[in-house]
Amino acid sequence: MKLPSVISLKDYVPSARRPAFTRFNVFLRDSFSCQYCGRTFPTHELTFDHVIPRCGGGRTSWTNVVTACSCCNLRKGSDTPRECDMHPMTEPFQPTAYQLQENGRSFPPGFLHESWRDFLYWDSELDS
Ligand SMILES: [Zn+2]
């Protein structure tokens, strides 16, 4: 079947669909490094932190959640970045599938494979 080119252009959607908002993808976006102390941790020592705490109206979304080690997360508690003077090194952002793929590439093959053992846990969609 031959489609008129005008229609296929109109229906064109950028191929980089929005990646699912999951724990794993948040960690992958931040390259498995704590956004407060900058160190890389094995996944089981990583937590995710609300930059603007939930009790302060912060949402669980790509733009308010960063990777933090349990130590920094504990230190930050439910303070805002200004209150505790802890600011994420990279402003949280909505990554593209391509960016996540590129980040995944920079890890040794065994590393991500290990993380995927808990696939169901890591890949469950976070509440927003
Ligand atoms: Zn840390």
Structure overview:
By secondary structure, the protein is mainly alpha-helical. It has 7 helices and 2 strands, in the order H-H-E-E-H-H-H-H-H. It has a two-stranded antiparallel ribbon. The longest helix is centred in the last third of the chain and has 9 residues. The radius of gyration is 17 Å and the shape is globular. About 12% of the residues have low confidence. The protein binds zinc ion. Zinc ion binds next to strand 2 and helix 3.
Low-confidence stretches: 5-15, 117-121
Largest sheet: number of strands, sense, barrel closure: 2 strands, antiparallel
Please tell me the overall pLDDT.
Answer: 80
Tell me the fraction of residues in β-strands, as a range. 5-15%
Radius of gyration: 17 Å
End-to-end C-alpha gap? 42 Å
Bound small molecules, which ones? zinc ion
Helix content estimate? 25-40%
How many beta strands in the DSSP annotation?
A: 2
The class by helix and strand makeup works out as mainly alpha
The side-by-side strand order for the widest beta sheet comes to: 1-2
The string of secondary-structure elements, in order, is: HHEEHHHHH
Shape: globular
DSSP summary: helix tally:
7
